[in-house]
Amino acid sequence: MAGFRFASLCLCLLVLTGIALPAAGLAVLLSGYHGDAGRNAPDGYTFVTFGRYPFDADGSEAPVLWRVLGPGSPEKADVIDAVNEPGRSWKKAANGDELSGENADLCCLMTEYIVDTLLYNDVKDTQDGTPLDYENTAVYRTLNTEVLARLFDAREQAALFEMPDRGLLALPTRKGELFRTDYGFPAEDFTESRTRRAKGTPWAFARGLKHTAGQYSWYFTADWRRPGFRWIVGDNGHISVSGADRAGGVRLVCYVHTGRLKSAGGSGTFEDPLQLIPAPAH
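and the corresponding structure tokens:
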């Protein structure tokens, strides 16, 4: 916790000076989850706002609240790793596991809320008996066109990293983000998880999102379980399965270049998130 207090002090200095985030500085974003790894402690995250999207039921927009998962490079979508084959490997990101060069400042963000309800695919999720690649699904197209344009302006989009096979804006992957204990998640499928579960916004509910546990709802991942079915996160945070030719909750993931952003205020808590805005071009 001492390290986190120091990082928080650094953050306060950043906020006061309004400097760009990459420098020494951005210990706060890059330190990521600071709770008890894998123990489902939902109070271990730094929070930021970045971009705007409909929030209220009438479509009124608000700054989007993201939780900082931590540094890292993204996995490719469509991992093939069945529950009964725990040793099977999955495809890695095209840029590899190590962060270096111009990608050394990458940080993963995930929306705190389920922000919308979208159709995953308009046809059964198969091609000759094999799953469609994620980048050929309707939800991929919608996220990387309509949703992207509504959420981020051109300068904000310039701070995003294009994920291999997932674009600039994506659904989370089961192994790439949702199994990472350093991101605060349990590395298990059918386990309740307070860090994986999510509430929907009024906009998402107005668009058809369903819930069975208070305001908590299920949401899609980018990965397929078997032809015609995708992994989802249930309303209590466990990993489950759903058909792919339906609409469901959308919780977003993006990877940002922290060196292209600066702080405009906030302390990084849920109640007072750090406000991210594009840094001036050099």
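(Above: one complete record from the training split.) Confidence is low (pLDDT under 50) at residues 1-19, 21-25, 78-98.
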